[in-house]
Amino acid sequence: MFSLDISLLVDSVLIFFLAFLIDAVFGEYPDRIHPTIGIGKVIAYLKPKLKNANAKIEKANGVLLALGVMLLVSVPVFLLLFWLRQSFGSIPYIIVGAVLLKATFAVKGMGQYTKPIASALKKNDLGEARKWLPFIVRRDPNTLNERQIISAAVESIAESTTDGITSPFFFFALFGVPGAFAYRVVNTLDSMVGYKNVENKNIGWFSANLDTIANYVPARLTAYLMVAASFLLRENWRESWRILQRDKGKTASINAGWTISAMAGALNTQLEKQGYYVLGDDHGISQEHITKALRIMALTAVLFGLVVVLPLLALRIYVTGV
């Protein structure tokens, strides 16, 4: 018979809100202690050992790479938190859980990389703006003009709202802190091996598809909540809705176009990755769009927590008791 463990629900909610507070106050953890950096090092170590001249074997090894690293990371997190709660009670469990959960998402961190771009452009310093761009996109900054730099920053903010914030939230709601870490492994794998070039097309095929599947629901929920955030911030929410419906399918990724098009409409501007896509209508663009995009991202994260995470947490605990 289903039952709702109120104490477990309260603990999970406190973990979530404390993690959000840690992010708001401190931003990203230093690289030397950041779990995502450690995950990247594990992937970089294992990848060459799993490469194989036989495409089928290499694809199978790609599955092992993804599942193996997910288990390597999420199982110890689960065991640590289980031990803390059973042995020391709720307070250590909540504190450690929040510290760990914070490592899986970044709200303030996006501003740490994009606000300097806006500041540099306000001073008409393209060179300084270009120095910050490689932290958030893979495009060659030296080939981009001011408009393209702003567009790249806003696109990154929009897309990162899903894979850097709401997707970890979603999997935390479904599977707890270990679930958020499992998602972070999938997303890190995709960023490292999820490409269709010769080097990665076999070893990374499973990771790329797994990332697409993992982001499918969160991307769509996030886009709709981005429209709501635009309404609350008095941005152009009607245009956000219209452009979302019109342009969401114009990107190669079946997920990225949702939040980027919603953001383009909300800011009443056009976002373009040359040679790949053009989303939104051109009504001009300025460095102020970066600041506005960050506000929309932050409020979307809050709304996702309230509208998606809390109900899913209650449902999970009601159904599973854990």
Please characterize this protein's 3D structure.
- With 322 residues, the protein is mainly α.
- It has one domain (6-320).
- The chain is 74% helix and 2% strand.
- The chain has helices at residues 6-26, 35-50, 55-88, 90-102, 108-122, 126-132, 146-193, 205-232, 237-247, 256-266, 288-320, and strands spanning 270-273, 277-280.
- A two-stranded antiparallel ribbon has the order 1-2.
- Strand 1 and strand 2 form a beta hairpin.
- The chain is globular.
- The mean pLDDT is 96.
The helix fraction, in percent, is over 70%
Q: Numbering strands along the chain, what is their spatial order in the largest sheet?
A: 1-2
Shape: globular
Oligomer: single chain
Largest sheet: 2 strands, antiparallel
Structural class: mainly alpha
List keywords for this structure.
single chain, 322 residues, mainly alpha, two-stranded antiparallel ribbon, 2 strands, globular
